[in-house]
Amino acid sequence: MANQETQVLDEIIAANRRKMLTLGVASLAGLAVAGLGVPLAKAATSYTDSDILNFALNLEYLEANFYYLAAFGTTIDVANAASTAAGALQITLSGTVGTAGSVTGGSQVPFTTIPVASYAIEVAVEEGKHVQLLLSALGSSAVAQPAINLGTSFQTLATAAGIPGGAAFSPYASDDDFLVGAYVFEDVGVTAYHGAASLLTVPANLVTAAGILAVEAYHAGLIRTTINYLDPTGASIGGYTNLISTLRASLSMAGLLGVAPGPYDANPDDYGLADFSVSLAGAANVTATRLTDADPTNVIAFARNTTQVLNIVTGGGAVNGTTQVSPAVGVFFPAGMNAGPNGFK
Amino acid sequence: MDNLSTFINRSVSRRKFLAGVGAGAGAVAALNLAGCSSSPAKTTTTSAPTDADVLNFALNLEYLEAQFYLYAATGSGLEASDTTAGSASPYQTVGTVTLGDAAAVPGLTPAQQEILNEIAYEEQEHVRFLRSALGAAAVPMPDIDLSFFGPLAVAATITTAATGAGSFNPFSSFDYFLVGGFIFEDVGVTAYSGAASLISPAGVAAGYLTAAAGILAVEAYHAGYIRTSLTGRAIAAGSAAAYPYLAAANLVEDLRATLSVGDGAAPSTTGSVETLLTLPPDTTPASSTTASSIVAASPTTAVGFARTVNQVLHIVYGSATVGASSGGFFPSGMNSIFATTTA
């Protein structure tokens, strides 16, 4: 049966892609051939594009609610005067797969500068559209919005990162604090969509994922540029980016479960804004900023697999030693992500 | 003193520029103004492009970006060893760079210099990465014309009112540089988005897609930087009039849209894949309800745009004409099977 054969083929492709991603997407043709001979621990499990898009939807629920709360003081499903005036979508939470949860914490930031306020509004509007797009694309397959903690979760992460006063940190207290909160998310969104790109099997989904990847990177560039502008020496919020990136890299490496990172996923796989030294047009030891979060050798942005991303957004909840924990629970997702029977959580 | 806008009116109309080479003598004159020389048409192919073809297309763009940023940051370009032909490439002639005003941007603060250094480094490494991935198949650097910024600004109707005294020169100040970078960055993002779906299943398995997506992200970081800087400096200046570079960047967007949508016979922005920069009004921030426009993406879905290879070529050739095989930043055309526009 052609359909069955196609399905089997899809499963083989999906399984191999997943294996490659677990390996950190080792490069170039020879390795792909080698990968075919490797016994696949999860060869019986088939991941569909829906599984991958639902994983992304969980992350978009998280990001969109953070920015809506910061910009408008409301969650994505409730309109208020501020969100309406900004043209932000009011999202009907139509996803039903899994267990619906509530959003805790978060409040409107008392912005004092026009740039940061307008940036927050823009990003909120765009992340809301991402949620809406994924809900529409997934239809009845869409996962419900899980329980999301946008309050104490930041204090837990700030403390773990070693940010001074982290136990009392709130991303809703000021323009500067908001930027630090946003920094926690944006580079992670980039790596998650990057990691997912090669897992998708429907060409149209790849194009969409690439487009969302670009938007997340625009956001990340926006946040990093603004932090660098406000604190070019790294004395305060610029320095915090280094602490956060170090923590993210540590959680991400743990998510590799003992497998060495591939050529595009060096250890560490995350860099804050601290200057670095480069060789430029033949001149050595030239100082450069780090507005781009990418591998310093090939300057290709990092990709993370779902376990790496889960381990970051749950603050280490996805890994116990070299064993994957599922569902991963903690920090932003106190009850874990929602997924279908074979999905990532 | 000769005013740039009168110069435009006298010598080259935007419309003629847009009409491109196929439309007759006026357009040819415009392209010659850009420093182009006639060159034999590149061969095209109707067979499916290989992954190497796709990566080599990207390499041509990276050569251009790297040269621009390296000259802006350091006053020097790519090292010769980064421009050579792979032994199996059908293109064996290494091109030259027409410098025009290209030079290290003067008057930068240390923080600004470090940012230029970063972007220059990252584009340089993209060149090296693609050359390494392509190996013997890597095309050499084609002829690149960095003096094309002037004619491009004329075509975009960026006048002295928009950029102060003198003609548009992205190497003359930090703000001019931002507009110069703006010409490229959104295009780079959309070019990689468009190319992603051209990569074969074997190429996906080989890691090409992941590499392309990772470079796409870096280009979007850069675009985010450029757009944030232009917007932030306009906000700091207090008004659009006080910071004309924002409007100049939007004129670049208008030009890109007319170049890459439809044929030159009827310039149009319908179907544009551009998002114009906006200046949020000067209101009490806490009550602000106006979003910035840092991200270039679909207004309905907030998904980033993609461009076809033809759309990208129309922009970097400075010609909307179907069949154009060279021009603009690539006076002898790209070293690519895609070099001649087919739509």
Provide an overview of this structure.
- The complex is a heterodimer of chains A (345) and B (343).
- Chain A has helices at 2-22, 28-36, 49-72, 81-86, 114-138, 152-161, 175-197, 203-230, 237-254, 306-313; strands spanning 103-104, 148-149, 276-280, 283-288, 319-320, 323-324.
- Chain A is mainly α and 345 residues long.
- Chain A folds into 2 domains: 1-46, no CATH class; 49-324, no CATH class.
- Chain B has one domain.
- Chain B contains 12 helices and 2 strands, in the order ααααβαβααααααα.
- Chain B has a two-stranded parallel ribbon.
- In chain B, helix 5 (110-134) links the parallel strand 1 (97-98) and strand 2.
- The chains are: A mainly alpha (345), B mainly alpha (343).
- Chains A and B meet through helix 1, helix 2, helix 4, helix 5 and helix 7 of A and helix 4, helix 5, helix 8, helix 9 and helix 10 of B.
Structure summarized in a few sentences:
The complex is a heterodimer of chains A (345) and B (343). Chain A is mainly alpha-helical.
Mean pLDDT of chain A: 87
Model regions low in confidence, pLDDT < 50 over at least 5 residues of chain B: 1-45
Radius of gyration from the alpha-carbon trace of chain B, in angstroms: 19 Å
Order of helices and strands of chain A: HHHHEHEHHHHEEHEE
* Rg of chain A (C-alpha, Å): 20 Å
Backbone shape of chain A: globular
User: What percent of residues of chain B adopt helix (DSSP H or I)?
Assistant: 40-55%
Percentage of residues assigned to helices of chain A: 40-55%
Number of helices of chain B: 12
Name the beta content range of chain A: 5-15%
Order of helices and strands of chain B: HHHHEHEHHHHHHH
Shape of chain B: globular
Q: Which structural class do the helices and strands of chain A define?
A: mainly alpha
Largest interface: A-B, 88 and 77 residues
User: Strand tally of chain A, please?
Assistant: 6
How far is the first residue's CA from the last residue's CA of chain A?
33 Å
Adjacency order of strands in the biggest sheet of chain B: 1-2
- The total domain count of chain A is 2
Give the number of helices of chain A: 10
